[in-house]
Amino acid sequence: MASLGHPERHFAAVHVGGTNGKGSVSTMVAEILRAGGWRVGLYTSPHLVSFRERVLVDGAPISEDAVTCWAARLQEPAVRLGATFFEISTALAFADFAARGVEVAVVEVGLGGRLDATNVITPLASGVTRIAIEHTEYLGSDRPSIAREKAGIAKPGVPFVTTEADAGVAEVLLAEARRRGAGAEHLEPGSHLARVVADGSGVRFDATTPVRRYEGLEIGLAGAYQAENALLALRLAELAGAAFPVAEEELRAALRAARVPGRFDRRGKWIFDVAHNPDGARALAGVLDTVRPPRPLVGVVSVLRDKAWREILETLAGAVDALVLTRAPSAPPDRAWDLDEVSHWARERGMDAAVEPDFARALDGAARRAATVLVTGSFHTVGDAMSRLPGAPPLG
């Protein structure tokens, strides 16, 4: 940041962490702020098809020329400091936001929180979604340990909000935030959400925050769990609203319009979902049960070997008619799962699971036999499929 003249100090920000849902929350907050007429940056990760998806200003991705320019500018300090890919990406994003005149940016944490590259910002407000077991080699082996790392985005005097449903884990988040000098709030979904109704068109619900009760809110994202994400997004937008106010009607329209590529993303007979941990797989199975897409439903699945793929497959096997196990081409070779091991494990449990190492053939075969094809297991899996099929996320 210093080598670029500290671009992160040229715009206000909202910081969003957690395990699952932080991308959806970030997108909803950005859409709300945009609806108020503000110039809004959105930094998320990872991308699905193009790196440019990570860095948006008012919905427009960073240009190829800007990526090239900032990468060249960062080469010397990056090499000198031994910077990681994500550190370089974050610096590049913040430089682009400053150059494109962003007034307020919504920044999604990459991994954890306390030591994440995005934690160089001092935001208007910070929020954390639910906590699940992930990245145990970096964050700890249990949910309280992971929660303490996630709460590391809390800053002195900055409001901190969580919608974690587990009271014990929530208290760890709040205690760590307070220890860091933040004003901490817990919006427990069971008491702050009401009349949640989910169907194929989205979710309708009522929400109560410390300052307002909203009745009849609607979001276009599928899955009842998205109401919980919207609750956190609402509160973060309210806290940012002291500097960047948004009228309630604009807020409502923004929630209806928000879309997140790769999150129960229906495109014709295809459903794309980036579920890559057991919590995500359970949420996906719940949405499938609610939406009930045409059958037969075949899941094309590729999971990274360092993820809890056994739990993921057990959940998915109960939600689809058949599985096709494959390997996403963009998965790092040292993290790609072993299809022999996976297929042997699946056969032992009597799963209807075919193995097709060739990704394109796996997609084609599933499309021929299914009325609905679910593509899931990782961002690599969904991105690789989208890049091969019509309807990839538009750029520009």
Strand order of the largest sheet: 4-3-2-5-1-6-7-8
- Helicity range: 25-40%
Q: What is the terminal-to-terminal distance?
A: 27 Å
* Fourth CATH level, the homologous superfamily of the largest domain: Mur-like, catalytic domain
What is the residue-averaged pLDDT?
95
Biggest β-sheet, characterized?
Answer: 8 strands, mixed
Q: Can you describe what's shown?
A:
It is built from 14 helices and 17 strands. It has helices spanning 22-35, 64-81, 85-99, 136-139, 143-150, 167-179, 189-192, 225-240, 248-257, 278-291, 309-317, 339-348, 359-369, 379-388; strands at 12-17, 40-43, 55-57, 60-61, 104-108, 125-128, 159-162, 183-186, 193-199, 202-208, 213-219, 265-267, 270-273, 297-301, 322-325, 353-355, 372-376. The strands form 3 sheets. An 8-stranded mixed β-sheet has the order 4-3-2-5-1-6-7-8, with helices on both faces. With 396 residues, the protein is an alpha/beta fold. It has 2 domains: 2-257, Mur-like, catalytic domain (UDP-N-acetylmuramoyl-L-alanine:D-glutamate ligase), CATH 3.40.1190; 265-388, Mur ligase, C-terminal domain (Protein-Tyrosine Phosphatase, Chain A, Alpha-Beta Complex), CATH 3.90.190. Helix 1 crosses helix 8.
